[in-house]
Amino acid sequence: MPEPLIRVENFTAAYDGAVIIDDITFDVLPGEVFVILGGSGCGKSTLLKHMIGLYPPAKGRILIEGDDIAAAVGSERLKILRKIGVMYQGGALFGSMTLLQNVRLAMEEFTDLPDEAMTLLARMKLKLVGLAGFENHFPSEISGGMQKRAAIARAMALDPRILFLDEPSAGLDPVTSADLDALIRRLARTLGVTFVVVTHELPSIFAIADRVIMLDKRVRKIVATGRPADLRDHSDNPWVRQFFNREASA
Length: 250
What we know:
Elements: E1 6-15, E2 18-28, E3 33-38, H1 44-51, E4 59-64, E5 67-68, H2 74-81, E6 84-87, H3 99-110, H4 115-128, H5 144-155, E7 162-166, H6 174-191, E8 194-198, H7 202-208, E9 211-216, E10 221-226, H8 228-234, H9 238-244
Parallel strand pairs: 3-8, 3-9, 6-7, 7-8
Antiparallel strand pairs: 1-2, 1-4, 4-5, 9-10
Helix pairs in contact: 3-4, 3-5, 4-5, 6-7, 8-9
């Protein structure tokens, strides 16, 4: 078993004293596509926001290659953040910038590369996600699926070891969603990037996930961990089986 790339240890998230997630522990291994799932309001996106350092845990630690992201400051924190890239829900591209400019932005902020090198690298990232030829388009000029792809290219700008994707398939038609799933699997396989994905879209979960954790807002904990097909077929938790088999409540 390889050393975990991410370790979430005795983690609790709370807002205004109300506990959202209570004392959970799990690992993310190098190279895997790891999915965080659960019903609405269970804390999926809350957990992701803590994992990328936007909020400190109420209790516990989040370690990226052994370094506590919440405790780190200054250059140490920047060093940790350089290891991660984020695709926010909806893509969150800058509408006044072309796709090339969106991808270049992080390079301009955090590297000393020559202008020509940044442009070449940005073109390469866009080509990786199937957007060669669209470098000079603005986000409003492309489809929602293409916007998601461009957001992934931007998240890869600094060659992070970990990519966090928040609801990548939200709002997409089934074919476009399946194409995005295939892209995620291809990038994980060819680049060796570790993906942490928040979603509740069952087709995507079965298509991309090596392993999942399932949160339940009723107990504020992890109620299942494993491969999606195993949880669907063999979980001893009736609600977990109901979720994976898309069954209506009794």
